[in-house]
Design brief:
elongated
Length: about 130
């Protein structure tokens, strides 16, 4: 039987606590479901690695890493890098959409201003919006 080290226990329970925290954030509508899925998967992977000593040892040896805790740290660092890249892509797309919406709003405001000036009453003695 393989015993869990203190680091594995802390890591595993920390990951489980993170799963519950992510679920609570989704429940309170502070975190959207698409992001929560990424966090849940990452937390579950870390929890499985933390609770499964043989699997963690096998992955550590297969990757040529010196210690099991370094393997868990490497997975966390990889997840953070992927998450930062994903958020950068989403932020870039939102910036482009914001720019397009701003242009469209400016055009609509311009059209509204033109319609208001065309509908404004002309000088006295003219009918409606007709101009002399």
């Amino acid at each position: 039987m393989h015993f869990l080290s203190r680091t594995q226990i802390i890591t595993a329970f920390g990951a489980v606590a993170l799963v519950f925290y992510v679920l609570d954030l989704v429940r309170r509508r502070k975190l959207s479901e698409d992001y929560s899925l990424l966090w849940m998967i990452a937390s579950l992977v870390v929890a499985v690695l933390g609770f499964s000593t043989p699997l963690l040892t096998w992955i550590t040896r297969a990757l040529g890493i010196m210690g099991e805790s370094s393997t868990v740290f490497a997975f966390g660092l990889g997840f953070a890098t992927v998450m930062l890249l994903y958020l950068s892509i989403r932020l870039s797309r939102l910036g482009q959409e914001n720019h397009a919406l701003t242009r469209e709003l400016a055009l609509l405001r311009h059209e509204v201003d033109l319609l208001r000036t065309a509908a404004a009453p002309g000088p006295p003695g003219t009918a409606g919006g007709e101009r002399a």
